[in-house]
UniProtKB/TrEMBL annotation:
Provenance organism: Pseudomonas hamedanensis
The Mechanosensitive ion channel MscS domain, residue ranges: 630-695
Matches recorded under InterPro entries: DUF3772, LSM_dom_sf, MS_channel_1st, MS_channel_C, MscS-like_channel, MscS_beta-dom_sf, MscS_channel_2nd, MscS_channel_C_sf
Stretches assigned to the Mechanosensitive ion channel transmembrane helices 2/3 domain: 587-628
Subcellular location: Cell membrane
Pfam family, any one: MS_channel_3rd
Chain segments annotated as transmembrane: 214-235, 256-279, 338-355, 367-386, 407-431, 437-456, 491-521, 541-560, 581-600, 612-631
Lineage top rank: taxon: Bacteria
Domain Mechanosensitive ion channel MscS C-terminal intervals: 710-786
Listed SUPFAM superfamilies: Mechanosensitive channel protein MscS (YggB), C-terminal domain, Mechanosensitive channel protein MscS (YggB), transmembrane region, Sm-like ribonucleoproteins
An example molecular function term from Gene Ontology annotations: mechanosensitive monoatomic ion channel activity
Listed name of the protein: DUF3772 domain-containing protein
Residue ranges constituting the DUF3772 domain according to the UniProt record: 141-200
Length: 794
């Protein structure tokens, strides 16, 4: 029978005896390069194909003659860079593996050393040759990526130049018949280009509708239509059911319903587009002209879907209680048909303009198409503004001031009205491209602001729900982290505020770096390019490090608080140190810990201290003018915590203030007076001014002294004995030093006697003197001795 401990003993022997491990490993077959898993290989032909692809993109960019024709090539260059990065990432592990293998074999021995075995020499040569090829391939890929990155920069410059020239280009007014003549009577070249485009569409349609393919084409097209219509309705109903039955009742459910409504429209449209694209390209790719058109058409469709989806989610005319913005029902009903009208109009007109761009028609056709778009959008927006204005006036007449007057709504209404007025003037003056640009920017601003408003509301409500002590998540966090309700609310407000600030920043950036036709990928790339721009790169702050910094900050603060609780409640109470010393050590530990956490957080962000010279300079100037008092108090606080001339619990007197030290902070010290009020004294005063520490050293005694005036006819010795007996019989008066009575003064008003005794602590002087006075007055009354009567005022 096999003993169950033998395998464990054998494993322990291998682990703790290097010689035994060497003997065991010697029996294993030696690894070889050929037995390794196959690694990715990039041939010279692949590099040539990448170079040809980049050259083709350069030709497309050089052939572009307007701003819109550069959007497609820019996307393809971005995709090219991603492909190069993917290939480089696949080769990096191979390069590292070959470097390690060569390091194991070592360098070739010199001539004075005995020759190596032939197989080792051959293996080293093979590995060196493979590494040389990989290094060369990575170098070529890096060159291609740099060329593509330079091309992106050039595209941005070309687009900026073309945009400026188009916006300042003056043509005939839209009132001139010559402006519309290119559309009524196009040139022969434009007709041929349109005929060529139609022929390519027919050829692609014939391929898709070929015998044997019609059934699958019909199925895919019908499936796309069903997804776009019935699928959207079903997805909307299902997501609504999920939000109602799975999301707790409250503001989070309302924002989740709006977000789900928008996502149902966007996702189903994306699926329908992919099905249509697959139906057209499942056998053969589209020609270059149709491929360019399909890319631009997809962007226009997404823009139109965002208009309708966001409007449907925010207006919520069917369920007014789900509406997120404060829009009155009459205003929402007045706005309801216009998003769909605008989306359908843009889909038709912009698609026609994209046909002219894809085919490379004359600039006169393109300008005329822009004029049509600008005029139609001007009519739609003007009608919308007039109708909303009438509704707002009706609400104002009905004394519904909350619905009629809103600052933000008034700003939007004013901006839209001014934009349409400028657009109309531009059309009449012949600046058609400027009018089209204004209309597009107005639509893009609506998409960005509506989308980010929806996200901000969702994030805000999610944070409040997640950290709410009334819900399961908040209760779980309370139990896990040991936090109170107030702390959870603070975390929720902090996270909500930071998230909303970040989203607002991205919304502002998106307003200026995007436009109609900008995809989400382009928008994210542009935003990250700005957020990770030169300013942040100088500080070496990478957006990906923000999460690490946040985790370091949260974990560090939690550890410091946990350790401080352990020091205050477990470790320090069991030492021989007095409470004041324990409080000073605990405060000093927390201050040093927080400083270390801040340094760790900055290090996690990747901040290099050499790049923070401007911060140090600014701090030095601030310290020289306005922060010197703060710095002085901070240094004084450190001195108080280390030298400890005063400590927590001491009874001190400074500048007429006498009380017990309650807490020593970094900037100021809290002193508790006898009436339980708190006086906050800057630390610098405790260092620089004369201070009386009554309890320093722990052996201070209190003095209970009373001054009494008696008539001239009393027996001084009898009164002296009475006073001394009263002091000696009091429990709080110390025997050593012994109490004594002093003849203080003899005057016409009487004899003044001062009786003095000592108590163990200055804090009980007041109570002791009160008890002594009561007892002395009682004994004087029994003995028939009266105190001197003050002379009457003349």
């Amino acid at each position: 029978m096999r003993h169950p401990l033998k395998p464990l003993f054998f494993i322990a022997l291998l682990l703790f005896l290097p010689s035994g491990f060497a003997l065991w490993a010697a029996d294993l077959p030696a690894p070889s390069v050929s037995s390794a898993a196959p690694l990715p290989v990039i041939s010279q032909s692949d590099l040539q194909a990448l170079q040809q692809r980049l050259d083709g993109l350069k030709q497309q960019i050089s052939a572009a003659n307007n701003y819109n024709q550069l959007e497609g090539p820019q996307d393809r260059v971005q995709a090219f860079i991603l492909d190069v990065d993917r290939l480089s990432a696949a080769l990096l592990p191979q390069q590292a593996q070959l470097a390690v293998q060569l390091g194991v074999l070592g360098a070739a021995p010199g001539t004075e050393v005995a020759a190596e075995q032939a197989d080792i020499v051959a293996q080293r040569a093979a590995l060196a040759e493979q590494k040389s090829k990989v290094d060369g391939t990575l170098k070529n890929l890096a060159t291609l990526k740099q060329s593509a990155a330079d091309l992106i920069t050039q595209i941005a410059g070309i687009r900026r130049t073309l945009l400026e020239s188009e916006l300042t280009l003056s043509t005939r007014s839209v009132l001139s018949p010559h402006f519309w003549s290119p559309l009524v009577n196009p040139t022969l070249d434009d007709r041929q280009r349109l005929s060529f485009f139609v022929d390519q569409v027919r050829t692609t349609g014939a391929t898709v509708w070929a015998p044997g393919q019609r059934f699958f084409t019909c199925v895919l097209v019908l499936l796309a239509l069903l997804v776009w219509t019935s699928g959207r309705s079903l997805a909307d109903r299902w997501l609504t059911w999920v939000c109602i039955h799975r999301v707790p009742e409250g503001r989070l459910r309302r924002s989740a319903l709006a977000f789900a409504s928008a996502m149902a429209t966007i996702v189903t449209t994306a699926i329908a587009l992919q099905l249509l694209f697959y139906a057209c390209t499942r056998h053969a790719p589209l020609p270059p002209m149709l491929e360019t058109f399909s890319e631009e058409f997809e962007k226009v469709v997404y823009a139109c879907v965002l208009i309708t989806g966001l409007s449907r989610a925010l207006l919520s005319t069917q369920h007014p209680s789900w509406r997120l913005p404060a829009i009155a029902d009459p205003v929402a009903l007045a706005l309801q048909p216009y998003p769909r009208i605008l989306a359908c109009t843009l889909l038709v007109l912009v698609t026609l303009v994209q046909v002219s761009n894809a085919t490379g028609m004359s600039s006169q056709i393109v300008i005329a198409g822009r004029g049509v778009i600008s005029l139609v959008m001007l009519v739609i927006f003007t009608t919308l503004l007039l109708r909303v204005g009438r509704v707002r006036k009706a609400l104002l007449a009905a004394n519904d001031l909350s619905a009629a007057h809103s600052t933000f709504a008034g700003v939007i209404y004013t901006v839209a009205s001014v934009s349409m007025f400028v657009s109309a003037i531009a059309l009449l003056a012949g600046y058609v491209s400027l009018a089209r640009f204004i209309s597009y920017e107005l639509v893009w601003a609506y998409i960005v602001l509506s989308g980010f408003y929806l996200l901000i509301q969702l994030v805000k409500d999610a944070c409040e729900h997640l950290f709410s002590p009334r819900h399961a998540s908040g209760k779980a966090l309370k139990q896990l982290l040991g936090m109170g309700d107030r702390r959870l609310e603070q975390i929720a407000i902090l996270l909500s505020g930071v998230s909303r600030a970040g989203l607002l920043l991205m919304a502002v950036i998106a307003l200026f770096v995007g436009g109609i036709g900008t995809t989400l990928g382009q928008l994210a790339t542009n935003i990250m390019a700005i957020l990770g721009g030169a300013g942040l790169r100088k500080l070496n702050i990478v957006p990906g490090h923000l999460l690490n910094a946040l985790l370091a900050l949260m974990i560090g603060i939690w550890l410091i608080r946990a350790l401080r609780r352990w020091l205050d409640n477990e470790f320090l109470p069991k030492t021989d140190m007095d409470p004041g010393m324990c409080a000073s050590l605990s405060t000093l530990f927390s201050n040093i810990g927080y400083a270390f956490v801040i340094l760790l957080t900055l290090s996690s962000l990747g901040v290099q201290w050499t790049n923070l010279a401007w911060i140090v300079s600014a701090l030095s100037v601030g310290i020289g003018f306005g922060l010197q008092e703060i710095v002085k108090n901070f240094v004084s606080g450190l001195i108080l915590l280390t030298e400890r001339p005063v400590k927590v619990g001491d009874l001190i007197s400074i500048s007429g203030v006498e009380g017990d030290i309650r807490r020593i902070n970094v900037r100021a010290t809290e002193i508790q007076l006898s009436d339980r009020s708190i006086v906050i004294v800057p630390n610098s005063q405790l260092i620089s001014q004369n201070l009386r520490n009554v309890t320093l050293g722990g052996s201070a005694q209190g003095v209970a002294s009373l001054e009494l005036v008696f008539p001239l006819d009393i027996d001084p010795e009898a009164v002296k004995d009475l006073l001394l007996d009263t002091y000696r019989e009091n429990e709080t008066i110390l025997d050593k030093p012994a109490p004594f009575v002093r003849f203080s003064k003899l005057s016409a008003e009487g004899i003044t006697l001062t009786v003095t005794g000592y108590v163990s602590s200055p804090r009980i002087v007041g109570v002791t003197k009160s008890d002594l006075l009561f007892e002395i007055l009682r004994r004087l009354g029994v003995a028939g001795i009266a105190l001197a009567t003050p002379p009457a005022a003349s």
